[in-house]
Amino acid sequence: MSFAVRHLRRLFPGLEAIHRYPGSRRPDLLAGLVLAAILVPQGMAYAQLAGLPAVTGLYTTIACLVGYALFGPSRVLVLGPDSSISPLIFAAIVPLVVSDDPGQAIALAGMLAILVGLVEIGLGLGKLGFVADLLSKEVQVGYMNGLGITIIVGQLPKLFGFSTEADSFLGEVRAFVEGIGQTHATTLLLGISVLAILLILPLITKRLPAVLVAVVAATVASALLGLADHGVATVGSLPQGIPAPSLPFTNAGDLPPLIIAAVGITLVSLTDTIATATSFASRRGEEVKPNQEMIGIGTANIAAGFFQGFAISTSGSRTAVAEQSGARTQLTGLVGAGLVAMLLLFLNGLLADLPDAALAAVVIGAALSLMDIGILRRYNAIRRSALGVSLVATAGVVLLGVLQGIVIAVVLAIILFFRRNWWPHGAVLGHLENKEGWHALADYPQAEQIPGIVVYRWEAPLFFANSGRFREEIRRLAREHEPKWILIQCEAITDVDVTAAEMLEQLDLELNAAGIHLAFAEMRHRLQELTLRYGLMDSVDRNNFFPTVEAALSKIR
After folding, report:
1. How do beta strands 485-489 and 453-458 pair?
2. Element (DSSP H or E) covering residue 440
3. Higher model confidence: residue 471 or residue 16?
4. Is domain 424-556 given the CATH code 3.30.750.24 in the classification?
5. Residue 346 has what pLDDT?
6. Which residues of 181-191 are buried (b: 16+ CB within 10 A; e: fewer)?
7. Distance between CA 14 and CA 64 in Å, rounded?
8. What are the domain boundaries of the chain?
9. What is the pLDDT of residues 116-136, one digit of tens each?
10. pLDDT in tens, 383-405
11. How many helices and strands (H and E) does the chain possess?
12. Is the pTM of this model over 0.85?
């Protein structure tokens, strides 16, 4: 195999997977047909959620599927417009739009998509896939719950057949309540019917895509009954054709706020992508490549930006449909993209009678799938702090906005990380006669301690931020127990920095003056060598480092 061919295969892992996959291509072709049926209504719905013309959702769908098929490593992952990303796009571009010209909003959204793609590709090339883990689970849950609430409230007026001009959550609630008298009964009945299909059909069967059934039923009913003539707003005919690629740009002053928004969208998108890719890969016995995933989804975003599209993410629901329909490679996505393109080229009037309320119901159904209220009860039962963090993230999104909410979510995740390492758990240990090892007295009050010796476990890296707390804990033990030895069980200590080493040296001298000695058990050899380089061995006796608690006790008791 020539160098050029090998290089091309590494550059386009998606095409390589399609080429090398054994067996018939028929399952991918059929899966692509099924996938296309739900790509169209969801793409249009999420475009409107982003404040853009519905057709841009279809442009986005085509471009991102082709882009990911070339550069993405997953065989079955499906990308596209997403309910968790569209509100972020809306929040980012609305303050920058200075006229009612939809072309400016489309250009801003395209710029944002390209910026998101560049950030993601940069992270992938820099092998920084770990940033997808920045948001803890409880913060993710809180953010998604807040996002779901915000989306639902924003779509209620459209579901009821009227519009509002509010630009905040509380404003939306107030405007909806004040405008409830303008409800268009036919529109509301149709929207609720679509929502009912979306919620009930999956409970009956998984074989029929609920979105497809609901949208087709609403479109057919609208056409047969002439609902557009009775005041029901419809999508209308879509522009024919596919736009030529172009670089979207408005002015340089728009770049700083768009870059900030791009970072937030990247974080949400990659967190969702890695989680979804991991879930489907584990079921299929495949390996997840986080850095290549970043490059793949980054390329898909750039492709969308060049074709009048907007930022995208992975769709768990569309990926599940593709997998259940027999998808084996990204040929499924290419077939889906091709069918959407054919719709725009030759059948652009097919969805002219699709009611806007049906798209609102699709968005509300997606918002409900984002939310997880049940897990809050679990957090309340197992860890109240996780519940509090999740609720704060929700409140941030609802009350301050989705972009501000993602900032709050990130800050919360960082604070939570430092909180757990700044004030880690420590425990005095005792021995149980019929149970191997040493155990926390808080869990086993009957565990025995050895007179004159306190065995203490520190459950975190020992570094500058928590070294003061460690010192105070040891001083407290010295006051309360008045031991001759304090033995630190170091199994959970993964690092000791310079500040902590100096603290240990000073603490040892302080304890020695009171007739108390420090000893260390189960410290990693790497850390022992590190403390030697720090000069800690000059004050702490090198003979006071032991491989196990039992070995230490046999020497010091």
Report:
1. parallel
2. strand 435-440
3. 471
4. yes
5. 92
6. eeebebbeebb
7. 13
8. 25-417, 424-556
9. 999 999 988 888 766 666 667
10. 887 888 889 889 988 888 877 77
11. 22, 8
12. no
